[in-house]
Structures are given as structure tokens and as C-alpha cells.
Amino acid sequence: MNDWGCLYSSIFPDLVRFLHRKVWDEERARDLAQEAFVRALRERPDKPRPFLFAVAANLARDEARTMIRRKRHLALIQGGLTVETSTDPETELIRAERAQRVREALECLSERDREVLLLWDGGMSYAEIAAETGLAPGAVGTTLARARKRLAETYGHGARDHVARG
Amino acid sequence: MSQGADRTTQRAQPHLTEGELHALLDGALDQLGKARAVEARDHLRECTLCRDALSAEERVRAQADEVLALSAPRVAEIPPFEMLVARAGSNSGAPPRAARLSRAARLGWAASIVIALGAGWLAHELGLHTPALQEPTRGTPLVRDLPTEAPRAAMAPSMSDVEAAQVPESGEPAAAAQEAPAPVAVEPDAGREISVLLNLPVHERTIATTVSLPPVSELSLEPLLAAGAIGEQSEGRNEAGPEGTPPRAELERRGVMLLQRALTSVPPAPAEVGIQESVGGSVGVGVPPLFTGRADMDRDAEAVNRIAEPDEALDLAVPGLEVLRVEWLAIAPRQPSLRVLQRLPSGDTLEARFVRAPVGDVGGDPLALLTSVPLEAGWSQVVKAHGDGWLVARAPLAQEELEVLVERAGAR
Question: B311: which chain A residues are within 8 Å (Cβ-Cβ)?
């Protein structure tokens, strides 16, 4: 396997994870990750990882523009597609509820904080995050500190609310 | 944060900021500068407050990681790398599920619409505008079947006719296609550049484009002039036209739609179009809704005869009705149609089909083939111009009920 093949194996899961937290659809995240790699293979950038995440972020942004339309047709999608699920419905339900709370907590972050957090989680270095977001390298840690704190707090509150509601 | 404030005043050497603590935890402290990294590490060895703070931030970091881990996607098999290499090597490449129109298709779309607007302008400049439109009557043939010899005003159907054109109850296809009218014999205005902003709903973005008009002699304007569909361009888009004529916006809408049809056999060369994309709002030029499916579908053999995604049918689906099935089906060689089945409140099925105009000799007109299928007893059929093609709907409903239902197709 050549360099690009190795790169693909190592980055693809990170890219899917990054995209999943933007589009909240696993299958779609994989599609977009593949699309990002296809573009990278065509462009052959010098710095593949930043290129891939930049393309992925743009693809996810485009995706968000159609979010409202997709939401309106959520019922159709749910009714028309077979979604891969766990064999245990209860486990699947718990998993879905957790993911939803994480999503809500992430949406409480500012766009910049969320982007930095997800880029870090996707495996980007501080320097790469700075280059991608336009932040000073010294500000990346501060942004991450704020994002992590807010995420943990918001999710904690959400979880307590969830328990209180029963 | 009081602890942080205390830390910043305790010693002459600056305490570590939250950002530096997180950079340290992330192994990125050196990226903030070698000197500061050394200084920070030295300070940390001596400062208990900073070490306590580091422990606190470590917990925050761990909590955040735990939260993120809860939303991690399932571990899935990584698609073969060779597949992506193959996709990257082909020009088409399988696009993502909510596929965009190909660049060439987008250029073609933009160019055809621009040409439509330009042609309308040209027609007006040349005094070829035929304003009168008649009230719709049932059974009027589709616009492609317009006779060429009759006086224009007398044979002009309205767009309502086109949209609600009925197929004879015998189930025969609409009148057999006649020879396309001869191009308008006027001096071409080739090379004239016009600029326009278009809002393409399927992209949710505005496209600013400049296009060189092709020679007018290449355009078959006759049916458009006959239909009175070409109106002058103006800033005001919703003012009423002369008495008895629809508002200008409606004329433009009809003109664009009909010109797209007329231009089918003369696709604009993408090379002639300079295109620039930017995110922006609608400029409302009356462009009919583009179909959400792939415009290059008819050139993608793999895409035919397959179950489609529900969101490929948004412009066909009637809101509020359950979508039972969406699929691409070839009804003639290289002429796919998108078929959407929805459940009616009665439990019966509404079938909607979308077909595009044939391009070249492809072995049959898909619309004619589609509408030639006999109707079952008790069923009605509606044929309606839709985006860059035609929508054919069938259901066990009264004709009027079906027409009302189809009017809602694609409503958001």
C-alpha cells in the first residue's frame, strides 16, 4: 500500500468521526469522508490532513445548508430507509438518546469553539487547527479549554435534566 | 475564575493559563514556543497552584473526551482504498448521496436560463413579442406539439395548458411529435455578453454568470413566440401585464421553462460560460424549481433501475403523504424516469414520474412512452411541466382531485 493508502487507513476513521459530529448521520459522514479523499487524491495536496479536514468541513457546511430540508423530510427518510441498528432495541435507544444529548451540548458551543474541538478530536495538531481556523496557535489551547469546559458542563446539565424528567 | 486569579498573582513568574495547561495536556506546549514551553515546565515543578489547576483541567479534558466518545460513530469497515482511487481517476466519480449537479450540468443550466433571459430580451428588441395568452382549455396539446402553420395568436396555449395537459382518455400518447419549427430568421447577436445572477435552489446558492449568447439562428424560438411566452425583462417582476395577460413574472417563468425545452437540442457549450459561485440570497429571476435529482442521471447507467434516496424526490413528493418507494427506472434506452410512490389517505397509491426531454436519438420520447401506458379504470392522469422535464402523475382519484394534489408536489 502506498503512502496515500496508509494515510487513508489512518485518517479515514478520524475524518468520519469529525464529519459525524457535524452531519449526525453515520452513513452520510462516511460518504462525505470518501468524497473528501477522492478530492484529495485528485489534488494531491502537500499537506493531506489539513486539506482533508478543510474539504470535509466545507462538505459538512454545504450539508448544513440543506439541513432544514432534510429535517422536513425526516419522516420520509425514517419511513423509507432501513437503518442499520443494534440487535438490541433498548441499547440502540439509549445510544441514540446519548448521541442526541451530546449533539445538543455541542450545539451550545460557539461555532468557533465547536470547530476547534472537533478538529482536535479529529487528530489535527494545534498548528494545523490554527491554520485551518485562522486562530493564533496560542489561542487554540484557550479555545479548547473553554470548549471542553462548556461541553462537559452542558452535557452534565442535560444528563441531570434527562434523569429529572424520567 | 478566582483560583486562576490567585495563581496569576502568587509568583513573579507567570502562572500557566488555562490554554497553556490544555496545550500541555495535549502535548502541544512546544508549539507555543520553545522558550515559553521550558519556562512553563519549570514553573509547574515549583507551583502547587498550577499543578492543582492542571489536575482540574485534566478532569475537564477527560470529561469532554468521554462526552465526545458517546457520540462516536459505530466502527465501520473502511471502504477499499482502490475504490476511491478509481473514483478519483474518473471524471464523474460517484458523488455523495445528496449529489450535486455536475459542473457541466450546472453550467448548462445556468447558460440555458441565461440564454432564455437573453433571448427574451432579444425578442423584445426585435419586436417579436406576442403578448396575448388565451385562457386554458382542456385537451390542448403539449407545447412541443404546436402546429407551425397556424397564426401564432390563434394557436397559443397558456402555460396552464401545458402544466395540466391531459392525455386523451383513450390512453394514446399526446399528439404525435411534429417537426420542430424552423429557427427564427433574424440577424444573430452572437457574442453579446449578458450577466445575470441566478438562485439555484438545489444548490442553495447564487450563481453569478456571464454568457455569450449563441447565434439566435440556433434557437428555435417559434414555439415560444407562438405561446406568447417571451416577455420583456424589467426590474418589476410582479406587476400585472396588459389587460388579459399574466404578470410579467409569470411570463418570464413560462419563457424560461419553454426555452429550456426548446434549447434541449442546442445545449450551450459550457466553455462559453464563465461562472463564479458565491453564497448569497435569492435574486428571484423566476427560475422554476430545479429537480433535486442528478441532472446527469441519464448519462449514468449505474444509476438507472435502482432504489433512490427519498431526498432525490423532494420536488416530486406531495407533502404530508407517506413515501412508499422512490426509484429510477429506465423507460427507454438512456432515458430514466424517477418514480415516486406515495400512500394516499384512502390507502391507494399515488404514482408520480419525472422524465426529461429526450436528447438526440435515444430510441423514444420518454414522455410519450410513459403516457402511452393505458390508464386503469377509475384512475386519472395529470401531465405537468416540472423543472426541466415533465411530471406524470396517476392515482385512483377524480381528475380534479389529482390536479389539486399534483399542484402541491414539491411544495416545501
Answer: 69-70, 73, 76-77
Query: Spelled out in words, what is the top-level CATH class assigned to the domain A87-166?
Result: mainly alpha
Which of A82, A148, A149 is most worth mutating to test chain B (most B CB atoms within 10 A of its CB)? A148
What contacts B165, CB < 8 A, 6 or more positions away? B139, B140, B141, B142, B174, B383, B384
**Is A93 touching B (CB cutoff 8 A)?**
no
The residues in B 120-179 lying below 8 A from A, measured between CB atoms, are: none
To the nearest 10°, report the CA torsion of B253, B257, B262, B263. 100
Q: For residue B176, how many other CB atoms are within 10 A of its CB? A: 10
Put simply, the answer to whether B88 touches A38 (Cβ < 8 Å) is: yes
B307 and chain A: CB distance < 8 Å anywhere?
no
Cell of B313: 424526490
Q: pTM, whole model, 2 decimals?
A: 0.40
Structure confidence at residue B319 (pLDDT): 86
Closest-CA residue of chain A to B95: A35
Q: In terms of DSSP H, where are the helices of B13-158? A: 18-25, 34-46, 48-70, 81-89, 103-125, 152-155
Using the Cα atoms of residue B279, residue B313, residue B354 and residue B167 in order, give the sign of their dihedral: negative
The phi and psi torsions of B328 (rounded to 5 degrees) equal -95, 130
Distances (CA, A) of A148 to A109, A112, A151, B26, B36: 9, 13, 5, 12, 23
Pick from B221, B192, B260, B240: which is nearest to B130 by CA? B221
Give how far Cα A84 sits from Cα of A32, B68, B74, B76, B82, Å: 18, 21, 10, 11, 25
pLDDT digits over B91-148, tens only?
A: 444 433 333 333 434 444 444 444 545 444 444 433 333 333 233 222 222 222 222 2
Render B380-408 in DSSP notation, one character per residue: EEEEEEETTEEEEEEESS-HHHHHHHHHT
Contacts of B8 (CB under 8 A, 6+ apart): B14, B15
CB-nearest partner of A98 from B70, B73, B205: B70
Going from N- to C-terminal start, the domains of chain A cover: 1-84, 87-166
Can you tell me the distance from the alpha carbon of B327 to that of B310, in angstroms, rounded to the nearest whole number?
9
By three-state DSSP, how is residue B171 classified?
coil
Stated as kind and residue range, the H or E segment containing B368 is: helix B366-371
pLDDT in tens, B164-207: 222 233 333 333 333 333 333 222 333 333 333 333 333 333 33
Report how far residue B39's alpha carbon sits from residue A110's, in angstroms, rounded to the nearest whole number: 32
Task: Encode pLDDT of B335-367 as tens digits.
Answer: 667 788 888 887 778 888 887 766 555 455 667
Residue partners of A120: CB distance under 8 A and separation at least 6: A129, A140, A144, B26
Residues of A in contact with B86 (CB under 8 A): none
Domain assignments of chain B as residue spans, ordered by start: 2-70, 103-278, 297-407
